[in-house]
Design a protein that fits this description.
Oligomer: single chain
Helix content: under 10%
Number of strands: 38
Structural class: mainly beta
Strand order of the largest sheet: 2-3-6-7-9-10-11-13-14
Number of domains: 3
């Protein structure tokens, strides 16, 4: 998990940037320092709301430091921050991601909460101290700026943290000063022919991880590979464009080509990875890829993508900044976009692997354009946009198991129950022990203990007790004890310690379960009547074919 350093409340915002004016394509160094004081911050403290910062941000000694990862300045100044802020009250928490300070006519501090950007605070410059914004000099400055928690942010925090007395109000004062540099890369020279680009400059070593975005293996049409081929074709100029020739695909800012001669495949640096309280995994990248074809007035960019893996790990969304143009808007400047949901990733059937070096990797995850991404990427929803292989330190994304308890009910396959107890004669018997009870014929209730991350649906739940199936006339004596449910979404498993006709088989994986769709409440996570299908090993114990029904499981786990 990301490192967290906390303060009890917030008190001023100061921005310090160090970037020479006119430094093309440079990402400035700098930070925003936050310290809040006022009614809203007092209410946060009174409600026992603690604020922590996710690295590389820092929150110590009553101040919060948010590093700046990107700056843009025109009529207003925009500072994009690295790191996160988390407001926590007891077991409840709200995470503010992709924080952004805007200075200008509509000064504000905004952040993503879930998938929605909210206006967290309004920033109001003092009349006696107007902002200084000089795009030509790359200068932005302001002092005595009043910061006020917005009603929308207060309402969100009240609901999420159960902080009933929290209201909008003054958070503190903002002091901002620094030299801001337009975050615009130099226009790359168009090559005379679609030839391989020179090798990129060596990138500094990065100890967080990386993602390989590969399109060279795509087949068919209307996908990222065919789009790249189209860009690199030698085209005549289409008015109002004046330049003819092939386009370019340029990686920068933390993105590089995996093979310098291959324009389809890119590697993106990962600068943050963390698991959220709801079980989602957020992986933030640094880097951008520019797709340009001046002959057809195309100038598209994907920048700083963030992968959000849904709780349970079956799917993910990719959000990105950038800009886009197309032939339908020929001659118009690129239209910028921020935090747009551009791609969907299908992780079903692609479990992550943990290597000997302590990294976790998802291999070759198919990516397609999302329903909302066609405007930014120019192709229809569902168009194949490569495959992503994501490698991060496992410690940053591993769940945090906690002790859990609950209840279970397992309805054994009715034909098996009938066979043991009734037909054919003579009848046998079913006996329970160790805490398991038989509520009705063939239905067994048992208390549950275990260790699990219920948000991520990972871990194990152990059912107390045993069931013995005895039909001596047919040579059957099977005891199933210490049943365990291994939570793994659609690939969950049920195992037990089995003794058959006096032979101890140890723990046997008896059945598979699809536990990907629980009923979730504030107090518990529950599944009802989930079919269990016999494994090959389970078939060897009960003689029914693999894949046949074993029974149905109902399981409820209380939140710790």
């Amino acid at each position: 998990m990301q490192r967290e350093r906390g303060v009890g409340w917030l008190v001023a915002v100061g921005v310090v940037l160090a970037c020479p004016a006119g430094a093309a394509a440079a990402t400035p160094d700098g930070s925003a320092e936050i310290a809040l004081a006022g009614k809203a911050s007092e209410r946060l403290a009174a409600a026992n709301v603690r604020i922590t910062a996710g690295a590389p941000a820092d929150a110590t000694a009553g101040r919060i430091r948010l590093p700046v990862r990107g700056v843009r300045i025109a009529a207003s100044a925009r500072l994009d921050h690295a790191g996160t802020l988390r407001l926590r009250k007891g077991k409840r928490a709200v995470t503010l991601r992709r924080l952004r300070t805007t200075l200008g006519d509509d000064s504000r501090l905004t952040a993503l909460v879930g998938d929605r950007r909210i206006r967290f605070a309004v920033l109001a410059p003092a009349r006696s101290r107007p902002l200084t914004l000089d795009a030509g000099a790359g200068l932005a400055a302001g002092r005595g700026i009043r910061a006020t928690l917005t009603p929308a942010a207060a309402r969100m925090l009240r609901r999420a943290l159960k902080a009933k007395r929290l209201r909008a109000g003054r958070l503190g004062t903002v002091e901002a000063n620094g030299r801001l540099v337009a975050d615009t890369p130099p226009r790359p020279a168009d090559p005379p022919a679609p030839a391989p680009q020179p090798a990129p400059s060596p990138q500094p070593a990065h100890d967080i991880g990386h993602t390989d975005w590969v399109a060279s293996t795509l087949t068919g049409s209307m996908n990222l590979k065919t789009f790249t081929n189209y860009l690199l074709t030698n085209w005549p100029a289409v008015p109002p464009a004046m330049e003819s020739g092939p386009g370019t695909v340029v990686a920068s800012g933390g993105a590089t080509r995996i093979d310098p001669a291959n324009p389809y495949d890119h590697r993106l640096e990962i600068h943050a990875a963390e698991r959220e309280p709801d079980g989602a995994v957020r992986i933030t990248h640094a880097g951008r890829v520019d797709y340009r074809l001046p002959a057809h007035s195309i100038d598209n960019r994907i920048a700083d993508p963030e992968v959000v893996i849904a709780p349970g790990g079956a799917s993910a969304k990719v959000y990105a900044d950038g800009h886009a143009t197309s032939m339908s808007s020929a001659g118009a400047p690129p239209v910028p976009f921020t935090d747009e949901h551009v791609l969907d990733l299908d992780l079903s059937g692609i479990p992550s692997e943990v290597g000997a070096d302590g990294t976790r990797t998802w291999h070759d995850v198919p990516a397609v354009i999302s329903a909302t991404g066609q405007e930014e990427l120019g192709y229809g929803p569902g168009s194949a946009w490569g495959a992503w292989t994501i490698t991060v330190p496992a410690a940053d994304t591993d769940p945090a198991p906690a002790a859990v308890s609950g209840a279970s009910s397992f309805a054994m396959r009715p034909s098996w129950v009938t066979y043991i107890t009734t037909s054919p004669p003579p009848p046998g018997s079913i006996a329970v022990a160790g805490g398991t009870t038989e509520t009705t014929s063939g239905v067994f209730a048992a208390p549950v203990t275990g260790s699990a991350d219920l948000a991520a649906l990972r871990g194990s739940a152990d059912l107390t007790g045993s069931v013995r199936y005895l039909k001596a006339a047919h040579g059957i004596d099977i005891t199933v004890a210490d049943t365990r449910v291994e939570l793994g979404g659609a690939a969950s498993k049920l195992s037990a310690v089995v003794t058959k006709n006096g032979v101890a088989h140890g723990r046997v994986p008896l059945a598979t379960l699809d536990l990907s769709a629980p009923a979730v409440t504030e107090d518990a996570v529950a599944w009802t009547d989930v079919p269990a299908a016999l494994t090959a090993e389970g078939s060897g114990i009960f003689t029914y074919p693999a894949g046949d029904p074993y029974g149905t499981l109902s399981l409820s786990l209380d939140r710790p």
